[in-house]
């Protein structure tokens, strides 16, 4: 949800779309600016969350951040930017920041993983002791030399980071599918969930991005689509939303921002998800959220 007009406006927009939870960018997601959160802004944000009963707020880190970069200048800038994200999240009372691990543009994935570990350690070390914001590593589609498309890479980062207790995972359905992890039919879905459990454990998963994929299975192309209109299909979302092991996790949509026939597609996507989530929550009030911050 856009933060235009203030962080509290994002909450209002989420409520108007019928969201239960909220993901946002804390500043322009394609600029290196270091926006400060004023105390009065944080207070308005918290009051809005309470007023509209929006839960599980989540920060999505700046897209420019590349913790795996071999370029020392970019890597250092990324560490500073992530540290700033943690500080803004703490000011807003948000417990998690989700970030893409980044790309090892030199082609050396092993060294790229090491740079991600070092970046996370430095970012956490730079924070004051009272800042306990955690970081969620997002699964990726695997375009180019992007890290995080293999579950084992994420597990290695979790294991090697000094502040491992402050790390978690954010699953993205579009990215998993594009990376070659099937989400339907049931037998294939079960294999993927089992692989997640064996690799780093479902307890590490703290959030899920619900997105269909415009690209084919295993394509390694990151292109989100509206729910039920992509290559993943509704059956995968039905299986996921009705999985008792995942029932308490907040879920967020990052589908294309547009209107169709005068109706906001965020609303349409939420309706489609709730229609297949009826067995998960009476009344179909699943924790699916419409996201796109500006």
Q: Which architecture would the CATH scheme give at its second level? A: Alpha-Beta Barrel
**What is the top-level CATH class?**
Alpha Beta
**Topology as H/E string?**
HEHEHEHEHEHHEEEHEEEHE
Strand order of the largest sheet: 1-2-3-4-5-6-9-12
Structural class: alpha/beta
Radius of gyration, in angstroms, nearest whole number: 18 Å
Net shape: globular
Largest sheet: 8 strands, parallel
The mean pLDDT is 95
Strand content: 15-25%
> CATH homologous superfamily name?
Divalent-metal-dependent TIM barrel enzymes
Helix content: 25-40%
Number of helices: 9
Write up this protein.
The chain is of the alpha/beta class and 294 residues long. The relative contact order is 0.13. The longest helix has 21 residues, at 72-92. The chain has nine helices and twelve strands. The protein starts with 6 loop residues before the first helix and ends with a strand. The chain has a single domain, classed as Divalent-metal-dependent TIM barrel enzymes (TIM Barrel), CATH 3.20.20.150.
